[in-house]
Fold this protein.
Amino acid sequence: MQKPKEKPGAQDVNVSEKINEFIQKNRKPIFITAASLFALLIAVITTLSLIDVFRNRAIAAVEKLNDRYETMLPSITEEYFSDDVNSLLDELTDFAKKNSGYPGGRAGLIIGGIHAAKEEWAEAETAYAAAAKTAAKTYLAPLAWFNAAAASEEQGKTTEAIEYYRKSLTTTAVFTSAPRAQFSVGRLHETMNEDEKAIEAYRAVISGWPNDSVWVKLARSRIIALESKTGSE
């Protein structure tokens, strides 16, 4: 004997009744879970808002430090300014230790700039490298690595400078001086008489930034000179 067919929608009604029954039986834990999730959501939103507030404050603070730096920059090597410069360096160093990301990296770049202005190249290199690491996810990173390379060059540390230039090219941020950095890699290999590596680096300038009118032209001229040199030997 066949079972009578359920009326259309009867199955949905049964499912709905079961859901209602489940909710009635477990309404207390369900309510507690929902309340906990809501509280967690509020906590996350509040935390993100506070982080944003503190970050904006940090940015404002480091920009004030930068204003002081730019004001004293023309006379930064003068003896009568040494106390002010040292005071600013202390504040920047303390700030950089307490802040990460853009604010901390910005402070590190200023520290590097002060040492570079005083031709304290080892200290400048250290400050720039630290800034690059602190601001690794910002557009400051490639600039900091580039400056670290320049400071290394001033010390005659060619191998380290090449490595810094390469690091400036591997960040995710857009870096307008990238073709110059790549050209510098070739230039430094050339000073070390590593002509093949220099040519390879110069070719990377041409392939990587074909629309650059300055560094591509210079790279081509250096490739011609080096290949002519190799051919004449």
